[in-house]
Here is the input.
Amino acid sequence: MTRFPVAPEAVAGAAASLGTDPLTLADLLRVASTPGFDRWQEQVRRTGGCSDPIHLSGSTVTRDRRTGDVLYSYSTVDEPGGRLRVACGNRRASRCPSCAWTYAGDTYHLIRAGITGDETKAVPTTVREHPRVFATLTAPSFGPVHNRPSSGCCRCGSIHPDDDPALGTALDLERYDYAGAVLWNNYAGQLWQRFTIYLRRELAARAGLSQRALADCCRVSFGKVAEFQKRGAVHFHAVVRLDGPDGPDAPPPSWASVGLLDDAIRAAAGRVAVTVPAAGEFPARILTWGTQIDVQPIGGLGHEELTEQAVASYVAKYATKAAETTGTLDRRIGERAELDKATLPAHTRRLIDACWDLDNAYPERMLARWSHMLGFRGHFSTKSRAYSTTLGTLRQTRADYRAAQERRERGLPDPDDAEEGSTLVLAHWTYAGHGHTPGESWLAAGIARDIRTNRDTAREALSELSPDDWETAV
Here is the structure.
């Protein structure tokens, strides 16, 4: 390829027109003129436009187990840079929007299957007839914050716009209970665990049964997600469902109702209390749920209640978000000195400082290690065993589908087909790095946008079809 010199001012002008900096544009031009650029683009498309792909080097050989003949072989020697790029799989939208989009899609299907049923995911459609609610449990107050009340103005005397960065921050930084806030986040998982225990007790009491007898006729199933409020406190959204003793396949007892479940949830949340012992200068505390508990019945499409699709979409939306929505860092803080280099809102910085201040007093809670999460150390999405399918099953189904596609393209036999004989796969892979250069990042982001636009367009086209036409199109 013949290369021509490019004037620096020309690069700067082109960079401005593309909305990027000259160094990124220069790297972009380097990538585009490198041999194997088309194959690099293909690799990035196969990762879905991943912003931080894992680089692998190695080879794989598929042989006929009986004859030893090589049916297929692959090596990264001829790949761009001698590497194969695979998706990072990070669920955080702040780290990789592409992989987070896939994670959100999996979470949507997992939650929706537990609401509507899905035979392909081993959940019968009869769960629609089971009592189901969408519950939200929040943290208590740790001090007044800037907010948008339904009527009137904030306590500060202002009416804040939706995008005001002051929303959720303390009205008085000196009087806000930052230690209590991060300890509450840190113990939130235990608060939820105790809530599920008390919920079963409350259900049993309302049914006039012992807890053992309750287990013989009713099971509580749930799928939940954690969300950070703007003030930096975690709260939980959960789909809670009552099943028969064998899970979604069994009908719930006749006494089970949405009203009874609603009442039991509120009573159970009110009973939960976790004691934090005194340590050094920090007094003992009793952690509880906040008074704002919301429980809404879940209805089908066309009903006035909260729709099934809306609930699944809401949960999936927050499954890819974390504490960075409050302005904190999305990576672990190794040393407190790192905070001096970070640009953080004052309220968020106080929460992180509180984690480090409390770390020596409560070493077993690992508050400093989780200071980037404002003390929270739990899983962002969890479910009970019988709620629906698992994320691992969904990922494996997708991997099996792609593997079957590749076998068909390469003319390889199905390993489960005894008549075709079995195959032996010998593979050797080593980690070779991760990520993109600045120019590669810019190109990968464009590929990710194109992929998502195409998917959204296809989804909109399918949504306009009648049920019969939709089945034909699929």
